[in-house]
Design a protein that fits this description.
The chain is of the alpha+beta class. Helices cover 26% and strands 25% of the residues.
Length: 401
C-alpha cells in the first residue's frame, strides 16, 4: 500500500510551508513517528513525523514551498524492513571495458594568462595581473597589444579572493524581514533611552545565586529582574500594554511577555504567559524551558503568539546600545544591552559602577512621550531598588528560599 503524506496545518492562518531539510534519504526505510523532515513556516520550524513505516519516496525537494495539505512524500507500507535495520544495497554496476581513443597530434599551448615579455612589462607598469587579461594571441597568449588595451580594475589590486555565494533565505527569515519593514512603514516608532546602575542586582545575585540554584534548579539571572520590573511598569502605565486594532486601542489586564531568544533558525520570540503571576523562580524556570525548546527546534507557533510586550537582550552579543524594532501588533519593546563599568557621579563623587543602557521603542500613535518616559523610568527605579520595589523588602520570601 502506498501512503500519501500530506503537509499538516502547523497553525491558524498558515497556508504554506517550506521543506527546510530532509532528515532521511530517498528510498530509506522509515519507522512510524520517525522525524523525516524539518519544515519552515513563517512563524516556526517544525518536525514532520512519518505517519507509517515503509520506504520513502520524495515528492518535494529541499527549499520547495508547498501548500498545507499537499503531498510531500510517499511511503510504501508493504515494504519489508531490511535485516539488521540497514537499507538494501543497490546492485553493483559492471562497467564495460574502456577503449582509448587515438591521440590527436600534439600542439603547443600556453596557460591562461601567459604573457609575452613585452606584455609583461606593460602589465607590470599598470599593476595588472596577467591572469586577469584575456589574450588574443595564439593559444590565448597575452600580446603587447592586449596589455596596452587592458584597463586596471577599480581599487587596489591585491590578488585576494573575490568570490561570492548565494543561499536561499528560509521562509521564517523572509517573513521576519517582511514584518520588520512593515513595522517601520506602518507605525510611528520612536525610541527613548536611559541607564541603569546594576550594582544592587549584582549584590543580590552574588549573595543568593548559589542558594537559589541549589533550591530551584535554575540560575538567578537578569531576566527575572527585568521581567518583573516590566510587569510593574506595565501596571503603572497600561497604555504601553496596549495595541492598535483598527481605529480602537485594545488594552490588556494581563502581561504576556515575549522574550527574544536565539535558535538554530535565527531569532525566535516565545511568550511567558501571565508573567504578573510569576515569582523570580517562576520566570527563570519559564525562560529556561522556552530557551531550551527554541534551541532544540521544538518551539511551537502557539508558544510564540499572543504576547503583549517584548524584552530583547542584545547585551549577550556585546551590544552597547540599539533601537529595537517593535514586535507587531505590540506597541512596545524593551532593549537590554551589555553591562560596562563606567564612571558616574554619586553624591558629588565620581565612582565606578556597572551600567547598562536600556532602550524602549514604542508606537507613538497610542503611547505618548510622558507615558513612554515614565514607563522606562519605572523600570530603572525597580532595577536600582529591587529589594523594596520587586521583593517587598523580604528577599528570602521573594526568592522562595
Amino acid at each position: 500500500m502506498i501512503l500519501e503524506m500530506k503537509v499538516p496545518s502547523p497553525g491558524e492562518s498558515i497556508t504554506e510551508v517550506e521543506i527546510a531539510t530532509w532528515l532521511v534519504e530517498e528510498g530509506d526505510y522509515v519507522e512510524k513517528d520517525q522525524a523525516i523532515a524539518e519544515v519552515d513556516s513563517d512563524k516556526a520550524t517544525l518536525e514532520l513525523p512519518a505517519e507509517a513505516s515503509g520506504t520513502i519516496t520524495f515528492k518535494a525537494e529541499e527549499g520547495d514551498a508547498v501548500e498545507v495539505g499537499a503531498v510531500v512524500c510517499l511511503i510504501d507500507t508493504s515494504a519489508e524492513k531490511p535485516a539488521g535495520g540497514e537499507a538494501p544495497k543497490a546492485e553493483a554496476k559492471v562497467e564495460a571495458p574502456k577503449t582509448e581513443a587515438p591521440k590527436a597530434a600534439e600542439t603547443k599551448t600556453y596557460a591562461t594568462g601567459t604573457a609575452s615579455p613585452a606584455a609583461k612589462k606593460v602589465l607590470a607598469e599598470k599593476g595588472i595581473d596577467a591572469a586577469t587579461v584575456t589574450g588574443t594571441g595564439k593559444a590565448g597568449r597575452v600580446t603587447k597589444e592586449d596589455a596596452v588595451n587592458a584597463v586596471p580594475s577599480m581599487g587596489t589590486p591585491t590578488g585576494g579572493a573575490r568570490g561570492t555565494s548565494r543561499s536561499k533565505m528560509s521562509m521564517l527569515r523572509r517573513k521576519v524581514a517582511e514584518r520588520l519593514v512593515e513595522v517601520k512603514n506602518t507605525t510611528a516608532m520612536l525610541t527613548t533611552f536611559n541607564e541603569v546602575d546594576m550594582s544592587p542586582i549584582f549584590a543580590l545575585r552574588t549573595e543568593y545565586k548559589e542558594t537559589f540554584k541549589a533550591k530551584h534548579g535554575v540560575g538567578l539571572g537578569f531576566m527575572s529582574f527585568f521581567t518583573l520590573a516590566v510587569v510593574r511598569a506595565l501596571e503603572m502605565y497600561p497604555a504601553v500594554n496596549s495595541m492598535m486594532d483598527g481605529k480602537e486601542m485594545m488594552s490588556y489586564d494581563f502581561c504576556d511577555i515575549s522574550i527574544a531568544v536565539s535558535g538554530p533558525k535565527g531569532l525566535m520570540v516565545p511568550v511567558i504567559r501571565n508573567a504578573e503571576n510569576l515569582s523570580f523562580r517562576g520566570v527563570e524556570s519559564e525562560v529556561k524551558r522556552l530557551a531550551l525548546r527554541a534551541r532544540d527546534g521544538q518551539i511551537t507557533v502557539d508558544e510564540m503568539t499572543g504576547g503583549t510586550f517584548t524584552i530583547t537582550n542584545g547585551g549577550v552579543f556585546g551590544s552597547m546600545l540599539s533601537t529595537p524594532i517593535i514586535n507587531p501588533p505590540q506597541s512596545g519593546i524593551l532593549g537590554m544591552h551589555n553591562i560596562v563599568e563606567r564612571p558616574v557621579a554619586i553624591d558629588g563623587q565620581v565612582v565606578i559602577r556597572p551600567i547598562m543602557y536600556v532602550a524602549l521603542s514604542y508606537d507613538h500613535r497610542i503611547i505618548d512621550g510622558k507615558e513612554s518616559v515614565g514607563f522606562l523610568v519605572a523600570v530603572k527605579e525597580a532595577l536600582e531598588n529591587p529589594i523594596e520595589l520587586l521583593m517587598n523588602n523580604d528577599i528570602k520570601k521573594a526568592l522562595e528560599l
